[in-house]
């Protein structure tokens, strides 16, 4: 069994920065693709960023140039550095391992519990 635990969320003013962490335990996620998602009230879960085993990254259009996903294998932790935050970035943020999209939604055997990010204007 593996577990993911997010932390680092909070309240920040527009234009500010936050760094989210996703600590993995219970298994080695080193070979997994890791991803960050977010979900605002009334919205579907949105893919924010992915980091593949080979190091390649992808970002959602709304966060390109502002967010950076990275991983520290020694700490078994994935990070999401968020800069130039906007009120529309307000959401619950989740990390997941090896997510797949089918049936109109994202699925993973490993989801964290989420961390809330609120950006005030």
What would you say this structure looks like, in words?
With 121 residues, this protein is mostly beta strands. It has no helices and 13 strands. The protein has strands at residues 3-7, 10-13, 18-25, 34-39, 46-51, 57-59, 67-72, 77-82, 91-97, 100-102, 105-107, 110-111, 115-120. It is globular and about 40 Å long. It starts with a strand and ends with a strand.
Taking Cα atoms only, what radius of gyration do you get, to the nearest Å? 13 Å
Helix content: under 10%
Distance between the termini: 41 Å
Tell me the structural class: mainly beta
Low-confidence segments, ≥5 residues, pLDDT <50?
none
Characterize the biggest β-sheet: 7 strands, mixed
The portion of residues forming beta strands comes to over 45%
Give the count of helical stretches.
Answer: 0
> What's the overall average pLDDT, rounded?
95
Can you summarize this structure?
The chain is an all-beta fold and about 120 residues long. The protein has no helices and 13 strands. About 0% of the residues lie in helices and about 55% in strands.
